[in-house]
Specification:
208 residues; 4-stranded parallel β-sheet; 10 strands; globular
């Protein structure tokens, strides 16, 4: 199985009382909970793509966390992942470390970036039902006002019609952008299908 998750921020003490308000008594308790949640789902043979801001800790302490996590790992770098520049960091724990990547997941294209990409590659690709077949997975904005702005952009885009080369008339533009913020999944990495369902439920709750 392949899973995705973003913005775990191991060792980021301030997130318990500021911005995310995660509510843990300490960074140590937050770290322990996130490790437990991760390993409750991910098996040693699974793959996990981390969409940036994995840790704000130094290389050696980040290495210790990585050694406790199950799975084969891939890293999309975020603005807080400064540990990767330290010589003590064990880069071999990851298959690759990139600022951006494109992969395929069960016949769907997946665009991977720490930052939201509004006009992403493959956005206009559709199946025979007219459904978008490309998903843009991102992080960085957590559950902030910036995330609300991203969702407003998505709403505007989906209501906008465009006539493509093979369309008989203008049709709505697909916009499959999903924020894989760890708190949206209670710190558990999810498959693409699970993130799609999670995203639908979250947006329905906002509407209600």
């Amino acid at each position: 199985m392949r899973y995705y998750i973003s913005d775990l921020h191991f060792f980021h003490e301030n997130l318990n009382t500021q911005m995310d308000c995660r509510g843990f008594d300490s960074a140590e308790k937050m770290n322990a909970y996130m490790i437990s949640q991760w390993n409750s789902k991910v098996r040693p043979g699974d793959e996990v793509v981390i969409l940036g801001d994995f840790s704000v800790g130094k290389a050696e302490e980040t290495n210790r966390i990585l050694n406790l996590l199950n799975g084969t790992l891939y890293l999309i770098t975020g603005n807080h992942d400064s540990y990767i520049k330290e010589k003590e960091f064990h880069k071999e724990r990851f298959v690759w470390i990139k600022p951006y990547a494109e992969m395929h997941d069960n016949r769907r294209k997946v665009i991977l970036s720490h930052y939201p990409v509004f006009c992403y590659n493959g956005q206009y690709r559709k199946n025979r039902k007219g459904e978008g077949t490309t998903y843009m997975l991102y992080g960085h904005v957590h559950n902030t006002q910036d995330e609300q702005l991203v969702q407003k952009f998505c709403e505007i885009t989906r209501k906008t019609k465009r006539q493509g080369k093979y369309d008989r008339e203008p049709v709505p533009i697909p916009c499959n952008m999903i924020n894989c913020f760890c708190m949206f999944s209670d710190y558990v990495p999810l498959t693409l299908d699970e993130w799609i369902e999670n995203d639908k439920r979250r947006k329905q709750m906002v509407i209600l």
